[in-house]
Amino acid sequence: QVHLVESGGGLVQPGGSLTLSCTASGFSIGSSAMSWYRQAPGKERELVASIFTIAGRTNYADSVKGRFTISRDQAKNVVYLQMNGLKPEDTAAYYCFAWRVSAWGQGTQVTISS
Fold first, then answer.
1. Residue 25: how many CB atoms within 10 A of its CB?
2. What's the CA gap between 109 and 50, in Å, rounded?
3. Angstrom distance (rounded) from CA 5 to CA 78
């Protein structure tokens, strides 16, 4: 059975950092493109970052480029989202998505506030 479990969210001051984790089970993350999405209250879910199966190529939304880094540890079957230079507009629930199995995690809340 496929499961994705996000963790690492929390309350951080502007300019701070967080690392989100997405722990997968039931499939290998190396066999699937993996993405992080986020959804702020009253807004549509938006694609933040993706990592692809071929050579671990990555792609980012313009709003996070240079601040966020997506990576994966295939041995642990975990996908990470390192977030630096956080801004209040980064406040959202962050979700992990596995393209090959069309699976979502339950989300983890990130709140940026002083």
1. 11
2. 19
3. 9
